[in-house]
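Revision sheet: structure tokens.
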Amino acid sequence: MSRSQSVEDYLKAIYKLESSLEGKGVPTSKLAKEMDVANASVTNMVKRLSDLGMVTYESYYGSRLTDAGRKIALEMIRHHRLLELYLAEMLGYSWDQVHDEAEKLEHHISEQFEDKISELLNDPKFDPHGDPIPTKEGLMPKIGLQALSDVDENKSYEVKRVKNQSPELLRYLDDYGLTPGAKVIIKKREPFDGPLELDIDGKKITLGYKIATDILVTAVD
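Predicted:
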């Protein structure tokens, strides 16, 4: 069945919001904000997706992906994240540049091209931001990580993923070396969600609490 780019974008957005809502239905208002459209446009689209068997939709309970809708969403996410890594590893794009390019290309590559990229990159598990890449079979790896804002002081952690991928923030983090693979220690945490004093691979910086909530880490033994 032929799918429009709009359908694929909506399914991907619903998947993202479902994940953040821990499986609850996605409210129309949240989806409208994510897609930057009016609520009425979202209502029309989710009714269309419901007719296509890709979502279940109830007025007061929001939208949920069906198995068919989730499969397409994960396919698009796989395309997107493989393309981001390809652009970074093979074409020299910086991690703040890859999202917009991948967003344009993800709808247009064939499954054969997807397979070739994966093979060339040795079947990668993560994109340049540390986001997990769904498998060819449509499975999203489960990764147990903690937000940097929540970890213990004076213990060593490794940056694994950055959730907020605005280009401005990524450039800011890059300047301080806060990229996947960096070793970081919280030396001091100010109260009431105040800034954090960090040691990043031996370099001292101060980081806002809100930014730290979007940086996911794992403990270093």
